């Protein structure tokens, strides 16, 4: 179950469910040479953070082992939002995903129809064919 938790974290790192999180600048800020006045509304593009190679080495690679001894800095991993905008059901979601995957892995086999197919990366990594697969019941 420890490895399953890493698989879930890696999956939601690569394919976050929300496009962006709205925020308001609480003070005048300069970011990468751009001036953002206090009160302006900004969108935090979550995939840009989760796929940043300065934070996650080889970000396009699905690697659950990256979570072995990795504790993300504040603001670098927030698939369920953060602060007052955090999803109150995030822990429940991860538990439900764990239960589903446990039973799915024990009872079914998944065969990708087009393995190695092309992937687009904006706004988030998605197989062009939507990852068509066959589900085969075991036993």
UniProtKB/TrEMBL annotation:
GO cellular component, one term: endoplasmic reticulum
Keywords: Heme, Iron, Metal-binding
Pfam family, one: p450
Cofactors: heme
UniProt record, GO biological process: brassinosteroid biosynthetic process; brassinosteroid homeostasis; sterol metabolic process
A single MF term (Gene Ontology): ent-kaurenoic acid monooxygenase activity
Gene3D superfamilies in alphabetical order: Cytochrome P450
Binding of heme, residues: 87
Listed PANTHER family: BETA-AMYRIN 11-OXIDASE-LIKE, CYTOCHROME P450 26
Family from the record: Belongs to the cytochrome P450 family.
Protein name: Cytochrome P450
